[in-house]
Amino acid sequence: MLSYQHIFHAGNHADILKHSVLMFVLDSLNKKDKPYTFFDTHSGSGLYDLTDNRSLKTGEAKKGIEAISKIAGLGGEGGAGSSQLPSALSRYLDFVSVYLKDDRYPGSPEIERCFMRQSDILILSELHPQEIENLRKNMDRPRENSPKVKIHNRNGWEMLKALTPPATKRGAVLIDPSYEEISDYVQAADTICAVHKKWSNGIIMLWYPLLAHRESEIEAMLERITKCARAANANIEIANLVLEVFDKNEHKEVSLEEFRASDGKNPPRLYGSGMLVLNSPWKLEEECSAVIEYVKNRLAGLS
Question: Residue 241: enclosing H or E segment and its boundaries?
């Protein structure tokens, strides 16, 4: 959807989950010397200014990454200290803290570019005209040993189906659509089933929102993807990591327009989010479940 811009939501609780999982997967891929290819289907701009009026309007970063950083002792007084953090969360916060010092937040392409190696290939896709220009500028920033970065001004679903399996065989994909269109739920299932069928060893990560009014669509999407994956390989490792920050039964949802117009006074639209991972790396579920428990307990009530 061309009206969607992630700057409104950068650094929120969903990003904490998504990017903790992403970093764990990238670290897992880096354990072997062999090169790999990484796809990001809905890339956004790659780097976000948390002082931007759009970010300040929703206040999601303040109640997300900024709150967790302070609680963890990385941003001021009264923190728990990084030694007491789950290891995957500590890894995430150590990386993000460098950007927070400049009031910025790294999107998934920036994380991928920094974690990947010179021998690897990063393929990004973005349709929004302003976002892709920002993405190109951000990916052009100098960095030693960066992977080969290819940016496509192209539909992410189409790109992924056309370019998989990659020549390297090893690799992963992050699928992170806006879900502003109801068709995204069907497209996600269609694309993942098609891609997994021809690239059975690829790690596929799907981020999804927890929205009470889309519960049936979310369940149908997850069920279909899981069924397709298990039909191809009954023993496939699948992780479904869910972070519920708000109580679904008490959570009052508003439209995106109402939320933006309220200057952050209305409750966030999401009561949480999830990450479905096919071919889940060893210990991903264990390590990231600890992240979820930590974040859930500390962000609860900060609405």
Answer: strand 238-244
